[in-house]
């Protein structure tokens, strides 16, 4: 591979996080343009017609959607494998990835993180506290009950760490950003599973960038990340004023 892969997408996105953890676990070099989709310029719209992140560029190839990107990485760089070899377990892993991306994404990202973070700090809009309360007290416990019955007491879902483990852990990081912590007494397996996942070197390394990003105004984030040594691209697609668009899920 002559040039590192390029990822477009912000460190605090769980879908970007999922892709970056896969890259890190596979030891694949990459560069990142850490933009939020809300500030993507015309070039970003050309590369991502739905204005979603992440975007992967591999030479002339452009891919959208975190699931598509992770499957491409697995096909192109098979080892170490992040998908179970057994077809039944592989299908189960893909389902849990989809469950995380769709249901957890809707509840954690859009009903909690977006409401309490993005709407307030990027668009100067009020938080719909009823939406947040329903997500926290009613909708997220449904997911936690479901996962508690399936997550292992120790280790990972299918032996070695897989896309299912990565996806679940990536989504729950955004719950922490809005001060939600899984109740270890009510959901002990889930709480222990998340602690194990977040202790892995890729999650720990990304957490440093995430935490600085959260504490830094959007126009200053790129400079701060450069000072931290993040593997940034030479140019950015994040030059437009914040605006809503077709951006849900990744």
CATH architecture of the largest domain: Up-down Bundle
Query: In which range does the helix fraction lie?
Result: 40-55%
In what range is the share of β-strand residues?
5-15%
Strand order of the largest sheet: 2-1-3-4
Name the CATH class of the largest domain. Answer: Mainly Alpha
> Whole-number average pLDDT?
94
Figure out the total of helices: 9
What's the CATH topology name of the largest domain?
A: Glutathione S-transferase Yfyf (Class Pi), Chain A, domain 2
The backbone outline, from C-alpha atoms, is globular
Beta-strand segment tally: 4
State the separation between the terminal residues, measured CA to CA: 26 Å
Rg computed from alpha carbons, rounded to a whole number of angstroms: 17 Å
Low-confidence stretches: none
Number of domains: 2
Biggest sheet statistics: 4 strands, mixed
Query: Order of helices and strands, N to C?
Result: EHEHEEHHHHHHH
- The class by helix and strand makeup works out as alpha+beta
SSE layout and pairing:
Blueprint: E1 5-8, H1 14-26, E2 30-33, H2 42-47, E3 55-58, E4 61-64, H3 66-76, H4 87-121, H5 129-148, H6 163-177, H7 188-198, H8 201-214, H9 221-228
Parallel strand pairs: 1-2
Antiparallel strand pairs: 1-3, 3-4
Helix pairs in contact: 1-3, 1-6, 4-5, 4-6, 6-7
Q: How would you describe this structure to a colleague?
A:
With 250 residues, the protein is α+β, with helices and mostly antiparallel strands. It has 2 domains: 5-81 and 208-228, Glutaredoxin (3-Layer(aba) Sandwich); 87-201, Glutathione S-transferase Yfyf (Class Pi), Chain A, domain 2 (Up-down Bundle). The protein is 53% helix and 6% strand. It has 9 helices and 4 strands, in the order βαβαββααααααα. The chain has helices spanning 14-26, 42-47, 66-76, 87-121, 129-148, 163-177, 188-198, 201-214, 221-228, and strands spanning 5-8, 30-33, 55-58, 61-64. β3 and β4 form a beta hairpin. α1 packs parallel to α3, α1 crosses α6 and α6 (163-177) crosses α7 (188-198). 37% of the residues are buried. The mean pLDDT is 94.
């Amino acid at each position: 591979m002559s040039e590192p892969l390029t990822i477009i997408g912000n460190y605090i996105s769980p879908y970007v996080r999922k892709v970056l953890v896969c890259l890190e676990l596979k030891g694949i070099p990459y560069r990142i343009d850490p933009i939020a989709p809300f500030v993507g310029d015309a070039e970003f719209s050309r590369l991502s017609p739905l204005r979603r992140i992440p975007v992967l560029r591999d030479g002339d190839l452009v891919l959208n959607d975190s699931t598509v990107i992770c499957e491409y990485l697995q096909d192109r760089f098979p080892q170490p494998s992040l998908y179970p070899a057994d077809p039944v377990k592989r299908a189960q892993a893909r389902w849990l990835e989809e469950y995380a991306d769709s249901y957890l994404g809707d509840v954690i990202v859009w009903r909690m993180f977006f409401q309490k973070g993005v709407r307030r700090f990027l668009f100067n809009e009020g938080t719909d506290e009823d939406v947040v309360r329903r997500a926290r007290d009613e909708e997220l416990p449904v997911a936690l009950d479901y996962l508690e019955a399936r997550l292992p007491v120790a280790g990972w879902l299918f032996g070695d760490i897989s896309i299912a483990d990565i996806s679940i852990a990536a989504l729950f990081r955004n719950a922490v950003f809005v001060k939600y912590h899984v109740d270890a007494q009510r959901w002990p397996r889930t709480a222990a599973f998340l602690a194990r996942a977040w202790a892995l070197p890729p999650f720990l390394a990304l957490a440093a960038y995430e935490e600085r990003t959260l504490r830094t105004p959007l126009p200053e984030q790129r400079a701060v990340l450069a000072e931290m040594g993040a593997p940034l691209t030479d140019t950015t697609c994040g030059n437009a004023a914040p605006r809503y668009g077709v951006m849900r899920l990744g």
